[in-house]
Design goal:
- The structure holds two protein chains of two kinds.
- Chain A is built from 25 helices and no strands.
- Chain A is mainly alpha-helical.
- In chain A, helix 8 (162-179) packs across helix 17.
- The two termini of chain B are 22 Å apart.
- Chain B has helices at 3-9, 26-55, 57-60, 71-101, 115-125, 141-144.
- The longest helix of chain B has 31 residues, at 71-101.
- Mean pLDDT of chain B is 75; it is low at 109-145.
- Chain B contains six helices and no strands.
- By secondary structure, chain B is mostly helical.
- Classes of the chains: A mainly alpha, B mainly alpha.
- The interface between A and B is large, with 73 and 73 residues.
Chain lengths: 558, 145
Amino acid sequence: MTIPLQAEALDISFKLLPAIIVFLMMASFLVIGYVFKVADTEGMWVAGRGIGNIENGMAIGANWMSAASYLGLAGLVALAGFYGLAFIVGWTTGYFVLLIFLAAQMRRFGKYTAPDFVADRFNSPTARALAAFTTLLIAYVYSVGQARGMGLVGQYVFGLDIIPMIVVMMTITVGYLALSGMLGATKNMAVQYVILIVAFLAGVYVVGFTGGYSTVLPQIEYGALFSELSRQFSEPFIGGNTYYLWVATAFSLIVGTCGLPHVLVRFYTVKSERTARWSTVWGLFFILLLYWAAPAMAAFGVDLFAAVNDISPQAVFTGEQAMSGAEGDVIVVLAAQFADLPTWFVGLVAAGAMAAAIATTAGLFITASSAVAHDIYAELINPDATQRQQVLIGRATIVGIGALVTVTAFNPPALIGELVAYAFSLAGTVLFPMFFLGLWWENTNRQGALAGMSVGLLLWITSIINSVLPAYVPALANIAGEGGALVPIYAQYVPPIGAALVGTPLVFLVTIAVSLATPEPPLESKQMVRQCHSPEPMGQQQTAEDIVSSGGDTPADD
Amino acid sequence: MSQAAQRHQNTDYLDEEVNLLKPSTPYMRDHLRIVWAGFVAWALIVFGPVTLTAIAPGAMTTTMPVLGFPWHYFLVAFCAPTGALVLAAIYARQRDKLDDKYGIDHNTAGPDEGGASEGAEATATDGGERPEASSEPRSDGEEER
């Protein structure tokens, strides 16, 4: 699939007022980041663990509402119609599964990162390395979507070409991150959540109102528009978007939600498991504020696209003047532009998109940096590493992954939302089964985990090689031919975007079978699992391991 | 002290197997009941409408009165995410009730939370529903051995 590099319909030029809004926003991020600047690794990774329900819920929301939610979601709903709703369902309802099966248990396990969890649960440095590698891969793929979003929207404000624009936006993100640790980032994330939800909802309400589409509840009122839009907007299962693909996509996004390291790390920043539970509920609510409104914005955008270009509703989807992928990706900003709103207002909506992308990229890069500094460097390469060395390695990782993401975003393989979905299917295939079985089946052992993670990684990587790489490697493209996939049947049932529908059950089976065929894990591992489910309250800095190794005493008794 | 809280105090959770299908403690049985009921409701809300749409596209794509959405679109775009939020709030509430039933108070957990003042505050504000056992740190050290 070829994606046009930039959105033709977008007004690309330098605009002073929007530029000032963006500048003020960035400056406030950097100032807050500077104020909360921290030097020790404890603060850098989990913000000293003491954040409440609502603030943590907002941080979950900000972390979540990346360019994929802010821009990509409305784009998918606008371009792919009913199939786009699989992304709405997948990116919201997964939080319930996370809440009932993992959130509080993770908090009780009490480890900093996903690799830490896997390493301690399965007593294996190799498992740690596999999880750290997966974490890095997720952060990388996920961030490419963000970089593309920042670049596309940045063009409206700054008018640069797409490539310099991506470089500038990523430099800002990396510079900000290198300066502040996660304490700054956490405080910022609540601020960024507020900025972006206000910007997004302002866009939806104002476009809805000035366009005569809606008044007080655009989230519901856009229903009246369906009779005027092309049937393609709502028709289920058209073209290649089958029922199987719909379910595979939604399933992957749901299990991916439960396996994403940058979501799970939010549970380590709260003071108790009860806070972990309620902040998940709040987080989902804050996320829904955007997700309820996104399809409304898509509907307004599609209708305005037809009106402004003076084409029929059907011509938005097919023919010469149809909406391009890049235009779909910025439909949120385009809708505001088409509605003839003042440039400062369109700039505000655009600035919100940038905030969304920066907030998420910040969280991902922190996760990537701790995967490298903590899990690969300090745990495997140099066990005597000082705190200072770890912080330095962590920062170097941020700069390195930032550069790699930037280059990849110049020519991305898919739409923003789809790129991010690749990362979800990886997280859901490799990490979710480890978390779920690790926390709910005490007989899961090291051999099972290693076999399961290897199979999961292999399945996802072959799926990417099969369906995505042929577009980049001419030799593969020749083999793939028309369909674009090396093995069409594999691409049909294990598409990169929905790989988890086959992958997750397979990894569960492999992990369980290998665990059964090999010796049971030591009693201490089993007791850690039991401690995660015990109703006994635990101290804020305690881990399940502490409790088990101290012979089951609850230090609350002292 | 309630019977449930008594049983809870007599249980060493480190000796009880965790089994998703076969709960080994009364607390786990109560908890899993909430978990599975929620999960089934969730699965119906999330995958029900889209499956019905695949089975009976004609009936599902009819237009809703007043709102104007096709049914399948509204059920998926609005009801599924909202349903998950409602279920999440119900689950968190049920878990808090379960903690009350077993006399568990998260506000007095751990030595490094500054628990004392916070715990007292919580006790004062929640209308005395909390079982009395939870207002003082529990001493279950004896049963542990």
